[in-house]
Structure formats: C-alpha cells, structure tokens
Amino acid sequence: MQQQGWNERFNPRLAVRKRVGAIYLGVFLAAVLVGVIGLLVLVAQVLWEGVPWLSLHFLTDYPSRFPEQAGMKSAIFGSLWVIGLTALFTVPVGVASAIYLEEYAPKYWVTRLIEVNIANLAGVPSIVYGLLGLALFVQFLAMGRSVLAGALTMSLLVLPIVILASREAIRAVPQTYREAAYGLGATKFQVVRDVVLPTAVPGIMTGTILAMSRAIGEAAPMIAISALVFLTFIPYTPLDRFTVMPIQIFNWVGRPQAGFQGIAAAGIVVLLVILLSMNAVAIYIRNRTQKRSEE
Amino acid sequence: MDTSRQPPGAPADTAGARTAPTMRFNRNRRRAEVQGRIAHGLFLAAALVSVATTVGIVVTLVVESTSFFSAVSPWEFLTGTRWTPILQPRSYGVLPLVMGTLLVSGIALLVAVPTGLAIAIFLSEYAPERARRILKPVLEVLAGVPTVVYGYFALTFVTPILQWLLRTLFGYDLLVFNALSAGVVMGLMIVPMVSSLSEDAMVSVPRSLRQASYALGATRIETATKVMVPAAFSGIVASVILAFSRAIGETMLVTIAAGATPKMTFNPLESVQAMTAFIVQLSLGEAVHGSLEYQTIFAVGLLLFLMTLAMNVLGHFVVRRFREVY
Fold first, then answer.
1. Contacts of B107 (CB under 8 A, 6+ apart)
2. Cα gap B228→B210, rounded to integer Å
3. CB A25 to CB B126 under 8 A?
4. Distance from CA of B122 to the nearest CA of A (A)
C-alpha cells in the first residue's frame, strides 16, 4: 500500500471491493438465467410432451374419453367466438374512454375518479370478474352460461388494458397535428375523428392485440361463466354454451391417465402458437409505424 | 381551450351577404357542432363503463355475500378454522383457505423478490443496451404465458423434480399436489412484475446521483446497492406489494398444482387449497343460483377482492407517499 502512495488512514481496499462486486454480478447473472432458463425449460417441456400428440385431427375433432381421439375443435371455436365478440365490445368502448380522458376530460374530481378506478380495475383478480359475469350476465340479465355472457365478462376484464394502451397512443399524437387542424377551422370532434384517431390507430391496434392475447389465455373467469369442460358441439349463436382453449387444457391436465398429459401439452402448443403469432403481429405493427414516423 | 366555439372566419355575420357557399358552410358547421356534442356524450358514457364495472363488482359481491352472512355469522366465517362447505358436518371457517393462499403466495415472493430485484439491478446498472433489448422481451413473454400453462408446468415438471429431490435427499415422499411446487412456479410467473416495476423505479432515479457516487470512488456494486436501491426503494416496495396482490388473485396455477384440501398449515410440502381454487372447484360443479354454495363463492370472492384491493391501494400509496422527490 505504501509504495502506491496511499495514506495509512485511507485504505480503499479496492481489490476486495472489486471481488465483492464480481461475486454480486455473478449472483445477478444467475438471477437473469433463472428467468431465461425457466422460460426455455417450460417451452421445451411443453414441446417435448405435446408435439407427438399434434395432428390435424387434434384441431378438427371434438374432445373424447380416449386421448388418442381427443381434439380441441369445440375449444378453438369457443375461443374464436369469445375473442371476436370481446374485441367487438371492447375496442369501441375502450377507445372512446381513452379519447374522453385524453382529449375532453376537464381536470376535476370525476376525471380523477375514473383514472384511479381504471388503475384499480387492472389489479382486480380475473376470477372476481368471473363472479361479476356470473351474477350480472348469466343470472341477472338471464343470458345463461352463453358465449355472449363470457364475451361481455372478458370485455370488462380487458377494458383497462385497451384504455391504457389507447391513451398512450393518443398521447403520442403530436400536439402540432391538433393545432394545425384547429387552425383550419375544425371542431374538436373533427380534430379527434379526422386527425387524432387515424394517427393513433397503429398504437391502438397494438394494444388491442395484446389485450386479446391476454383474453385468449384467461381460464378462471371463463370457468365461472361456462363451467363446461367437455363439449362436443360448437356454438352457432351468441346464446349457445361454449368452452375455451384454456378450460379444455385445464380439464386435460387434471386427468390422471398418462395420455391426457400429452394432449394437454399439445393443446398448450396450439395456444402458445396463437399467442406468439398475435404478439408477432403487434410487434410488426409497432415497428412499422416507428419506422414511418422517423421518415 | 375551447376552439370549437369560434366560428372560423365568421363571414356570415359581417356582410349580410348570404350567398349559397356561406349558407352551406354554416349548415355544415352546425351539423359538426351537434355531432361533436353527441360524440362528447358518448365518449363520457364509455369512460363511465369502467366506473360501472367497479360498482357492479362491489354490488354483486356484497349482495350475494349478504345472503351468505344471514346464514353464516361473519365471525364464524372470519375466525373459523374448518372449511367444509360441501361436506357434512358443514363448517364455514375461511381461515384455511386464506392460509393456503398466503402460503403459496409467500413461497412465490421468496422466489420472485430476490430474483426480480437482482434482474432489475442487472438491467438498470450493468446490462449493455444489446442485452437489455433481448432480456426485456424474454421477461415480457414470461409474464404473458397463460397461467394454465404454468399450472401444467408445475404439476408435470416441477413437482416430479421436487419429489425426486426430497426422496433422494431426505427420504420424504412429496404429495402430487403441494404448496411448494405451486409457489415456486408462481414465483417464476411474478418475477417479471417485480423486475420490470423495480427497474422502472431505478431508471427514474436521476443520473446525477449515480455520477456522484462514482465520483466519490464507489464501485459499481456499491453504487447499485447503496445509492440506487435506496433511492428507488419506494418503487421497489410497491413492485413487491403489487406482485403479492397478483399472487393472491392467481387462480389456475394454484387450482392445478396446489391441491383441493383446505388446511391450516404452514408446511409447504402439504396439499392446501387457495381461495381462488375453491371458487373454481365450486364453479365447476355449476352451483345453483340462490343456493348456499353459490353464495359461498361470492363471500370468498368478496374477501379476495378486499385483500387485493387493500394491497393495490397500499402499493399506490407507498409510491406516492414515500417517493423521494428530486
């Protein structure tokens, strides 16, 4: 130490401190690996178990007591129904809410209440939405355990996500666009309809797709609404009974026979492929618009 | 800023020359204003849908629970230690379900908090831009995997590994359904929540603090643990609280992997039943509207809602109240 010129009272012990730092860095890297490896192992295990069970008839057949013959046709169609109707209900309401909060809402307590409320709704457990749907749509409004009741429930569940994403997209529209439109004499509504909305569409679409990919994986609220896990028909009207992919997977996971673990994994593969393609589309839209706005 | 009321140019009033184009302009203008007023109303109505949702949740839970509590005393419900609502003799003490939920969520936090915090520190203090650009989407995917998939993973992969480990190490036979496996996998599930919220908190700490720390001769790890983490502490605590709330409300994973035996235990190796798992169990049996079973679901749902609400409010309060202002 002396020859380095350190004062005796000032001993930085740099070597020790750097070694401590290196150890910590190792710990941090290990934590990152836990996350990454966890995901890889999960995907690998699902593929390993599920791919041998994948076939065309798995997509086009109804569930069966025999794993070799079981398919998820009813679940796939049920999910398509639920997602389609959910998008139909959520997008107009979510975008309109976002427009109100970003473009119209004066700063007073009602606005604050709506904002706090949306933040809290995002934290409500999904099964609680299921109970709301069960009491409100299935029983009180007498829709029965139908696709419509399921889709309405799912709409309320993903509404906060769509609102938050749409608000961000609307906020990202440059203020100069609005001012230019006002300068040409447009009314507020014309500015919103003809300038703000078209510019915000890609962001809104990205958020909506992500919200729908959340909805397609939700099982708990749909169990409260549908309760059905074994269905050998597909819904033809919004008032028909239904099942969805995650419920079907849940049912297969719970069966003790070995084969059903395999088709549960196959079902998960199908679900994950759909999820990944939805996310890919969302990312594609996001990247394309980013590029365009840079031009 | 009320631009909509200014008649732009206002040619109609000036000359009195009511030519055809001006009249058309005025008519269009009036129509646009009426449209605008209708649209304003519709937008407000849409924004109120979310308020109505909250009201709907509270009303339905309270109404059905009121019927439940006219049959079962709230005191018995909240302090009873036996939960057998569908078996004779019936008993409605909810504590075993609460305990099951807390046990699994507690294990999840033990996994997720250190891991998530370490990832957050790595991402905000160490990781080069390229590593961040790969890692963040990976973590997002982890957060986006449906919970039923995590349930499958816990039951068919993690549980057998734990069974093998415990048998070879301690000669202990682990049950197929146990709180430990569900908790560990749930920990993996909520890691992204802890890490992304904590990282946001650390990134928003002013750069000058970090620079000051380096200027004083601190190493990277010292800067991270003694400057950045304390400065972002409120955000980190909030991330843990919100992750806990998420864990309490998580349903499919605990239903699939933790079991269906309500039990007063802190032993992670036992099979338990979480509150959410109970709701699913009874929902699958299509509880008849108006029956006590049906109302039981809502009473448990109300308790669950209040617990997560308290957590969320606390989380937002911590962020607001204890935020260091720079």
1. B179, B180, B182, B183, B184, B186, B187, B268
2. 7
3. yes
4. 6
Type of residue numbered B267 = N
Q: How confident is the model at residue A99 (pLDDT cuts 50, 70, 90)?
A: very high
**Residue B157 amino acid letter:** F
CB B104 within 8 A of CB B185: no
In chain A, what residues touch B112 (CB-CB under 8 Å)?
none
Indicate whether B241 pLDDT > 80.
Answer: yes
pTM: 0.87
Q: Which residues pair with B84 in a beta bridge?
A: B91
Q: What's the rounded Cα separation, in Å, for the pair A288 and B43?
A: 29
CB atoms within 10 A of CB B246: 23
Q: Which residues of A touch B316 (CB under 8 A)?
A: 119
Phi, psi of B84 (to 5 degrees): -135, 70
Q: Does B22 touch chain A (CB under 8 A)?
A: no
* Cβ pair A114:B48 closer than 8 A: yes
Asked if A70 and A262 touch (Cβ cutoff 8 Å), the reply is: no
Judge whether B317 is closer than 8 Å to chain A, CB to CB: no
pLDDT at A70: 77
CA dihedral A260, A83, B247, A127 (to 10 degrees): -90
Q: Show which of residues 44-73 on chain A sit within 8 Å of chain B, judged by CB atoms.
A: 45-46, 49
Q: What is the mean pLDDT of chain A?
A: 86
Three-state secondary-structure class, residue A167: helix
Contact present, A76 and A59 (Cβ < 8 Å): yes
- Residue showing tokens 């492929």: A273
ipTM of model: 0.88
B44, two tokens: 């407000």
Nearest to B283 among A24, A227, A275 (CB): A227
Segment A138-167 shows an average pLDDT of 91
Number of alpha carbons in the 13 Å side-chain half-sphere of residue B234: 14
- A150 pLDDT above the threshold of 80: yes
From chain A, the residues in CB contact with B42 under 8 A are 96
Phi and psi, residue A12, nearest 5° = -70, -10
Q: How far is A27 from chain B (nearest CA, A)?
A: 7
Among A41, A182, A213, select the one facing B144 at the smallest CB separation: A213
Surface of B (41-100) touching A: CB under 8 A: 42-51, 53-54, 56-57, 60-61, 63-64
Q: Which tokens is B258 given?
A: 């933790």
Give percent above pLDDT 70 in chain A. 94
Dist CA B11 CA B21 (whole Å): 11
The answer, for A246 touching chain B at a CB cutoff of 8 Å, is yes
In whole angstroms, how far apart are CA B220 and each of A23, A24, A25, A219?
A: 12, 10, 10, 44
pLDDT for B12: 46
Task: Give the strand pairing for B91-92 and B83-84.
Answer: antiparallel
Q: Given phi > 0 = left and psi -120 to 50 = alpha, else beta, which region is A230? A: beta
Distance of CA A80 to the CA centre of its chain: 15
